[in-house]
Amino acid sequence: MRSGKRIAAAALAVALAVGMFSGCGRIDADAAAVTVADGEDTVTLGYANFVAKYTQAVYETTYGSSLGEDMWSRDLYGNGNTFEEDVKSDVMDSLQEQYLLVHHASDYGVELTEEEKSAIETAASQFLADNTEKAIEQMGATQEYVEQMLTWQTISGRVSEAIRQQAQPTATEEDARMRTFTYVFFNTASITDDNGETRAMTDEEKEEQRELAQLLTDPANFNLGASSVGGTMDTYSYHPGDEDETMAPEVIEAADALSEGQVSPVIEVEDQGFYVIRLDSDYDQEASAEKLESLQEEQRDDYLQTTLDGWKEETSWKVNDSQWAKVTFDVPFTAAGAEE
């Protein structure tokens, strides 16, 4: 969840109500939540509060049923922070990056057309019309703030993409070379009996699995497929030399030793089971093309982040902690009509 820092504009379609309404009189909307460029500019507490409360509402309507009423006070990431603190930190990071992207928009020829500005104005009006009066007040939503959020989202997204397209990825076809093998897996970790109870396998049952796996080491038998002996069959692609976080290293090591068409001996992976694999392709063109695209996209993302990091170093961004602390997620939001 935490990776989704920027809120999608499409989420404005959600209609909200509040649980126990308590108003938002605790904040001074005109106070500075952030002082930018040594006082040359500010981000108002009113706007920062709205973005934070809107983010709160999106999380609650999306994850509230699974995370529970105490979601904001829990340490969901195991980092010693409450979920509220983590999300507020993400909101502030997103505000900083959006601010910088918007203020560099002219460098990349990005601007909104009059039609787009009109569409944003209409969308903001509709958002206010779709939500209850109490929810709007609890969020601190105004026509100005909603338009600003949509404007920043739109422009920052376009500038981000313009920056990414300026990157010159260095990933090569060799960097993306993928080998593909078919594997059949025989589980020895547990077994479900006729009563639906799960238990550990006995040594005898594990040996039976090994014997079934051994049958597939004959290429003729392997080609018959897993259904003939009860294993689980699938394919897997990997890049030689990479540390693989998904497939067991014993299996990757065995794959490295195979030529195309060869079938491996039985591979035992402790606490998992037995594998038998067949190398299908020493150079899988389709998988390699997908890997190359993925590597290039990662490098474009890295270039964007490097650009943003440079701007952050050049532009002071001082959060007014005492004001920002007044923004809390104490009052829950619900989807309008959910409690009717």
TrEMBL record:
PROSITE patterns linked to this entry: PROKAR_LIPOPROTEIN (PS51257)
One annotated GO molecular function is: peptidyl-prolyl cis-trans isomerase activity
This protein's UniProt keywords:
Isomerase
SUPFAM superfamilies on file: Triger factor/SurA peptide-binding domain-like
InterPro entries in UniProt: PPIase_dom_sf, Trigger_fact/SurA_dom_sf
Tell whether Isomerase is among the UniProt keywords.
Answer: yes
Please state what the protein is called.
Answer: Peptidyl-prolyl cis-trans isomerase
Species of the source:
Candidatus Pullilachnospira gallistercoris
Q: Name the lineage.
A: Bacteria, Bacillati, Bacillota, Clostridia, Lachnospirales
